[in-house]
Amino acid sequence: MSYQISLGPLLYYWPRRTVLDFYAAAIDSPVDIIYLGETVCSRRHELRATDWLDLARALRDAGKTVVLSSQTLIETSADAHALRRLCEHDDFMLEAGEVGALRHMTGRHFVAGPHINAYHGDTLAWLASQGAMRFVASVEMDRDTLQYLLQDRPAGLQAEVMVWGRLPLAFSARCFTARHFRLKKDACEFRCIDYPDGMNMRTREGQEFLALNGIQTQSAACLDLLEHTDDLVAMGVDVLRVSPQSQNTLQAVLALDQIRQGQGYDPVSPPADIGRCNGYWHGRAGIDYLETST
C-alpha cells in the first residue's frame, strides 16, 4: 500500500520547549511530510518566524519533507506583510491557508490548504493552473463527495486527507479564549498556552460540543479515520494527515505506517477526556462516531 504520512501544522499555543521536543521526537517517527508555522494567531510568539525556519532546516536535514504553512485568517497589514515575507522563502514549499496567498506565489508550486474549500473539479483545475501540486480536502467532506471529487481532479494533482486529530472547523476575528476570561483580544494574556488541546465547550446539557482555540473553533472530539485507511488509499488519496495533539500524535503516525506495511495496529486513543468522531465521513453530523460493523 503506497501513501505518505504527514503532520499538519501545530494549531495550538505550546511552550517553546514543548514544541521543539515534539518535533525532535518526530524526526525518529515514520512521518514523511511535516507542515510548520503559525496558522491560527499572529500574537503567539513562543516561536518567531526565524525559529520556524531554523526548525524547518533541521527537519529537512534529518530527511523530512517540510512545508511552511501560512496563516489562515489575515486581519491586519502586519499579517499581510508577514504572509508576503513567508512566500519569499523559496527553499520550502508553502501550504496556502487562504486564497490571498496565491498572489504572492509567482508561479511556484504550493499546497492548497483545507480552508480554501475545494468542492468540485473546476476549483481543483483552477488551483492546479495556479501551481497547486496537492490539495487538502475540506474536513467536512463525506466519503461519497470525496470520491466524486477525486474522479474529477486534474492529472498530477495529489490529494491529502486529515485522518486523526481535532477538526479545525472555523475562524473568527474574535478571540473566544480571551472572551471567556473577559479579556480583550489585544490583551489576552496568552491564555491559550494553558490549553494544549484547546478549551472544551459544552452544551447546557453538559455534552462536549466544540473546542475553542483562540480565534479557531474545533470539534470537541478527535477525528479518527485510521480504520478507513484502505478505503482512502483505494480512492486515490496520496497523503494522510495527522493533526498534532498533546498526546498520542506520533502513535497515530506509527499506526498509519503499520497499516502501510500491511501490519496490524492498535487503536490510538485521543488525548485524555476527548472522545472520537467520524460523522462527516459517513455523511452524518460531524460529532457522531460510528463503529465499524464486524
Domain count: the total is: 1
> Tell me, what is the CATH class?
Alpha Beta
Based on CA inertia axes, which overall geometry fits?
globular
Q: Which value, in Å, is the CA radius of gyration?
A: 18 Å
Please give the count of helices. Answer: 8
- What CATH architecture label applies? Alpha-Beta Barrel
Rounded mean pLDDT score = 94
Quaternary state reads: single chain
For the secondary structure, the number of strands is 12
What percent of the residues sit in helical stretches (DSSP H or I)?
25-40%
Order of strands, main sheet, comes to: 1-2-3-4-5-6-7-11
Listing every helix as H and every strand as E from the N terminus to the C terminus, the arrangement reads EHEHEHEEHEHEHEEEHEHE
What is the CATH homologous superfamily assignment? Answer: Aldolase class I
> What is the CATH topology classification name?
TIM Barrel
Strand content range: 15-25%
Roughly how many Å apart are the termini?
Answer: 23 Å
Class by alpha and beta content:
alpha/beta
Low-confidence runs: none
Main sheet properties: 8 strands, parallel, barrel
Give keywords.
about 290 residues, globular, alpha/beta, TIM Barrel, eight-stranded parallel β-barrel, about 25% helix, 8 helices
